[in-house]
Amino acid sequence: MENLTTRIFWASDSTVQTNDITTYPQTGIGQVFSLYTKEGVQVCNHAKNGRSTKSFMDEGRLEAIEKEIGEGDFLFIQFGHNDEKSEDPSRYTEPFSTFMENLETYIQVARSHKANPVLITPLERRCFVDEKHLGMGAHSDYVAAMKQTAKNSQVPLVDLYSMSRCELKKAGEIGSRKWYMYFDANLYKNYPEGILDNTHLRHEGAVLYAGLVAKGLYELDGIYRELLLEEIENYL
Question: Angle at the Cα of 24 (from 158 to 125), degrees rounded to 5?
Fold first, then answer.
Protein backbone atom coordinates (compact mmCIF):
# COMPACT_ATOMS: atom_id res chain seq x y z
CA MET A 1 0.00 0.00 0.00
CA GLU A 2 2.93 2.33 0.64
CA ASN A 3 3.64 2.62 -3.08
CA LEU A 4 0.06 3.15 -4.21
CA THR A 5 -2.50 5.90 -3.73
CA THR A 6 -5.47 4.50 -1.86
CA ARG A 7 -8.53 6.71 -1.66
CA ILE A 8 -11.15 7.02 1.06
CA PHE A 9 -14.42 8.39 -0.33
CA TRP A 10 -16.64 9.75 2.43
CA ALA A 11 -20.42 10.02 2.01
CA SER A 12 -21.94 11.89 4.94
CA ASP A 13 -23.29 15.12 6.39
CA SER A 14 -22.11 18.29 8.17
CA THR A 15 -20.38 16.37 10.96
CA VAL A 16 -17.90 15.14 8.34
CA GLN A 17 -17.82 17.86 5.67
CA THR A 18 -14.83 20.04 4.84
CA ASN A 19 -15.50 23.65 5.87
CA ASP A 20 -14.08 26.96 4.71
CA ILE A 21 -13.70 30.36 6.39
CA THR A 22 -17.41 31.13 6.01
CA THR A 23 -18.26 28.48 8.60
CA TYR A 24 -15.10 28.74 10.72
CA PRO A 25 -14.50 27.39 13.35
CA GLN A 26 -16.79 24.52 12.32
CA THR A 27 -14.69 21.51 11.35
CA GLY A 28 -15.71 18.12 10.00
CA ILE A 29 -14.27 14.71 10.77
CA GLY A 30 -13.34 14.12 7.14
CA GLN A 31 -11.58 17.47 7.09
CA VAL A 32 -8.98 16.29 9.63
CA PHE A 33 -8.94 12.52 9.11
CA SER A 34 -5.67 12.63 7.17
CA LEU A 35 -3.96 13.34 10.51
CA TYR A 36 -4.31 9.62 11.16
CA THR A 37 -3.59 8.12 7.73
CA LYS A 38 -0.44 6.97 6.01
CA GLU A 39 1.20 8.99 3.29
CA GLY A 40 -0.37 7.87 0.03
CA VAL A 41 -3.89 7.61 1.47
CA GLN A 42 -6.10 10.33 0.03
CA VAL A 43 -9.37 11.43 1.66
CA CYS A 44 -11.97 12.42 -0.94
CA ASN A 45 -14.55 14.09 1.26
CA HIS A 46 -17.96 14.28 -0.42
CA ALA A 47 -19.81 14.95 2.84
CA LYS A 48 -22.19 17.91 2.72
CA ASN A 49 -24.13 19.83 5.32
CA GLY A 50 -27.72 18.71 5.89
CA ARG A 51 -27.69 15.58 3.75
CA SER A 52 -29.32 12.26 4.52
CA THR A 53 -28.91 8.94 2.72
CA LYS A 54 -31.88 10.02 0.59
CA SER A 55 -31.00 13.62 -0.28
CA PHE A 56 -27.33 12.74 -0.86
CA MET A 57 -28.44 10.32 -3.58
CA ASP A 58 -31.22 12.55 -4.94
CA GLU A 59 -28.70 15.34 -5.53
CA GLY A 60 -26.38 13.04 -7.50
CA ARG A 61 -23.65 12.98 -4.87
CA LEU A 62 -23.43 9.20 -4.71
CA GLU A 63 -23.39 9.13 -8.50
CA ALA A 64 -20.39 11.49 -8.45
CA ILE A 65 -18.55 9.10 -6.13
CA GLU A 66 -19.42 6.16 -8.36
CA LYS A 67 -17.78 7.85 -11.32
CA GLU A 68 -14.48 8.08 -9.44
CA ILE A 69 -14.23 5.18 -7.01
CA GLY A 70 -12.20 2.17 -8.06
CA GLU A 71 -10.72 -1.14 -7.04
CA GLY A 72 -9.04 -1.06 -3.64
CA ASP A 73 -10.60 2.26 -2.62
CA PHE A 74 -12.82 2.68 0.44
CA LEU A 75 -16.31 4.13 0.81
CA PHE A 76 -17.03 5.40 4.32
CA ILE A 77 -20.81 5.68 4.77
CA GLN A 78 -21.84 7.78 7.77
CA PHE A 79 -25.44 9.01 8.07
CA GLY A 80 -28.28 9.34 10.55
CA HIS A 81 -28.48 12.97 11.73
CA ASN A 82 -30.70 14.10 8.87
CA ASP A 83 -32.42 10.82 8.03
CA GLU A 84 -34.28 11.18 11.33
CA LYS A 85 -35.86 14.56 10.42
CA SER A 86 -39.44 13.41 9.96
CA GLU A 87 -40.65 16.96 9.32
CA ASP A 88 -38.68 17.09 6.06
CA PRO A 89 -39.79 14.55 3.41
CA SER A 90 -36.83 15.44 1.19
CA ARG A 91 -34.49 13.95 3.80
CA TYR A 92 -36.45 11.66 6.09
CA THR A 93 -36.09 7.89 5.92
CA GLU A 94 -37.68 5.20 8.06
CA PRO A 95 -34.87 3.57 10.06
CA PHE A 96 -35.79 -0.07 9.47
CA SER A 97 -36.94 0.26 5.86
CA THR A 98 -35.83 3.08 3.57
CA PHE A 99 -32.72 3.94 5.62
CA MET A 100 -31.49 0.36 5.45
CA GLU A 101 -32.38 0.09 1.77
CA ASN A 102 -30.41 3.25 1.02
CA LEU A 103 -27.39 1.99 2.95
CA GLU A 104 -27.49 -1.18 0.86
CA THR A 105 -27.40 0.96 -2.29
CA TYR A 106 -24.23 2.69 -1.10
CA ILE A 107 -22.69 -0.69 -0.27
CA GLN A 108 -23.51 -2.01 -3.71
CA VAL A 109 -21.93 1.03 -5.39
CA ALA A 110 -18.67 0.32 -3.59
CA ARG A 111 -18.71 -3.40 -4.24
CA SER A 112 -19.62 -3.03 -7.90
CA HIS A 113 -16.34 -1.17 -8.35
CA LYS A 114 -14.35 -3.60 -6.17
CA ALA A 115 -14.04 -0.96 -3.45
CA ASN A 116 -14.45 -1.56 0.28
CA PRO A 117 -17.58 -0.20 2.02
CA VAL A 118 -17.43 0.71 5.71
CA LEU A 119 -20.48 1.73 7.72
CA ILE A 120 -19.93 4.35 10.44
CA THR A 121 -22.68 5.06 12.96
CA PRO A 122 -23.49 8.77 13.54
CA LEU A 123 -21.70 10.59 16.34
CA GLU A 124 -23.82 11.58 19.29
CA ARG A 125 -25.06 15.11 19.95
CA ARG A 126 -24.45 16.87 23.27
CA CYS A 127 -27.83 15.72 24.55
CA PHE A 128 -27.18 16.23 28.26
CA VAL A 129 -30.15 16.25 30.63
CA ASP A 130 -28.01 17.82 33.37
CA GLU A 131 -24.33 18.55 34.01
CA LYS A 132 -23.32 14.89 34.27
CA HIS A 133 -25.94 12.74 32.57
CA LEU A 134 -26.34 12.21 28.84
CA GLY A 135 -29.83 11.68 27.46
CA MET A 136 -30.86 9.10 24.87
CA GLY A 137 -30.60 11.40 21.87
CA ALA A 138 -32.42 10.64 18.62
CA HIS A 139 -30.03 8.26 16.85
CA SER A 140 -30.75 4.93 18.52
CA ASP A 141 -33.07 3.41 15.87
CA TYR A 142 -30.75 4.51 13.06
CA VAL A 143 -27.75 3.06 14.85
CA ALA A 144 -29.59 -0.24 15.32
CA ALA A 145 -30.65 -0.21 11.67
CA MET A 146 -27.10 0.45 10.49
CA LYS A 147 -25.76 -2.36 12.66
CA GLN A 148 -28.40 -4.70 11.22
CA THR A 149 -27.44 -3.66 7.69
CA ALA A 150 -23.78 -4.32 8.45
CA LYS A 151 -24.69 -7.79 9.65
CA ASN A 152 -27.03 -8.53 6.74
CA SER A 153 -24.55 -7.36 4.11
CA GLN A 154 -21.41 -8.53 5.93
CA VAL A 155 -19.91 -5.04 5.93
CA PRO A 156 -17.43 -3.83 8.58
CA LEU A 157 -18.83 -1.25 10.98
CA VAL A 158 -17.20 1.46 13.11
CA ASP A 159 -19.48 2.30 16.04
CA LEU A 160 -18.72 6.00 16.37
CA TYR A 161 -22.06 6.49 18.13
CA SER A 162 -21.12 4.33 21.12
CA MET A 163 -17.56 5.65 21.30
CA SER A 164 -18.67 9.28 21.15
CA ARG A 165 -21.27 8.71 23.88
CA CYS A 166 -18.53 7.27 26.05
CA GLU A 167 -16.35 10.35 25.52
CA LEU A 168 -19.24 12.70 26.23
CA LYS A 169 -20.10 10.92 29.46
CA LYS A 170 -16.48 11.13 30.62
CA ALA A 171 -16.18 14.84 29.79
CA GLY A 172 -19.57 15.93 31.11
CA GLU A 173 -21.75 18.79 29.92
CA ILE A 174 -19.25 21.58 30.54
CA GLY A 175 -16.14 19.64 29.57
CA SER A 176 -17.56 18.63 26.20
CA ARG A 177 -18.53 22.14 25.08
CA LYS A 178 -15.07 22.74 23.60
CA TRP A 179 -15.62 19.96 21.07
CA TYR A 180 -18.80 21.43 19.57
CA MET A 181 -19.89 24.75 18.11
CA TYR A 182 -20.96 25.87 21.56
CA PHE A 183 -19.33 29.12 22.65
CA ASP A 184 -19.96 32.49 24.21
CA ALA A 185 -20.51 35.75 22.36
CA ASN A 186 -17.69 37.74 20.73
CA LEU A 187 -15.25 34.84 20.35
CA TYR A 188 -15.56 34.72 16.55
CA LYS A 189 -16.53 37.53 14.20
CA ASN A 190 -18.69 35.10 12.16
CA TYR A 191 -20.85 34.58 15.25
CA PRO A 192 -20.88 37.90 17.17
CA GLU A 193 -23.79 36.82 19.35
CA GLY A 194 -22.32 33.43 20.23
CA ILE A 195 -23.90 30.09 19.46
CA LEU A 196 -25.19 27.09 21.38
CA ASP A 197 -24.79 24.29 18.83
CA ASN A 198 -24.72 20.75 20.23
CA THR A 199 -24.30 18.96 16.88
CA HIS A 200 -21.55 20.52 14.77
CA LEU A 201 -17.89 20.23 15.69
CA ARG A 202 -14.97 22.56 16.22
CA HIS A 203 -11.42 21.50 15.37
CA GLU A 204 -10.72 19.84 18.70
CA GLY A 205 -13.90 17.78 18.50
CA ALA A 206 -13.30 16.80 14.89
CA VAL A 207 -9.80 15.58 15.75
CA LEU A 208 -11.15 13.64 18.73
CA TYR A 209 -13.89 11.92 16.76
CA ALA A 210 -11.67 11.30 13.73
CA GLY A 211 -9.40 9.51 16.19
CA LEU A 212 -12.32 7.35 17.28
CA VAL A 213 -12.98 6.40 13.65
CA ALA A 214 -9.28 5.57 13.33
CA LYS A 215 -9.55 3.46 16.49
CA GLY A 216 -12.45 1.55 14.97
CA LEU A 217 -10.47 0.89 11.79
CA TYR A 218 -7.47 -0.20 13.85
CA GLU A 219 -9.63 -2.73 15.68
CA LEU A 220 -11.02 -4.04 12.39
CA ASP A 221 -7.40 -4.86 11.47
CA GLY A 222 -6.30 -6.04 8.01
CA ILE A 223 -6.74 -3.62 5.14
CA TYR A 224 -8.48 -1.13 7.45
CA ARG A 225 -5.55 -0.87 9.85
CA GLU A 226 -3.24 -0.53 6.85
CA LEU A 227 -4.80 2.86 6.10
CA LEU A 228 -3.38 4.27 9.32
CA LEU A 229 0.00 5.59 10.42
CA GLU A 230 2.39 2.89 11.65
CA GLU A 231 2.60 4.52 15.08
CA ILE A 232 -1.14 5.14 15.33
CA GLU A 233 -1.65 2.94 18.39
CA ASN A 234 0.23 5.56 20.45
CA TYR A 235 -2.45 8.14 19.63
CA LEU A 236 -5.67 6.17 20.01
Answer: 40
Q: Would you state the pLDDT for residue 212?
A: 98
Pairing label, strands 180-183, 195-201: antiparallel
Q: How far apart are CA 105 and CA 167, in angstroms?
A: 31
Across 88-110, average pLDDT = 97
Provide the pLDDT confidence category of residue 2 given band limits of 50, 70 and 90: very low
Q: Which residues are catalytic?
A: 14, 193, 200
Contact 43, 16 (CB under 8 A): no
pTM over 0.85: yes
In terms of Cα–Cα distance, which of 233, 11, 227 is closest to 119?
11
Which neighbouring-strand residues pair with 180? 201
- 146 CB contacts (<8 Å, ≥6 apart)? 80, 99, 100, 103, 119, 121, 157
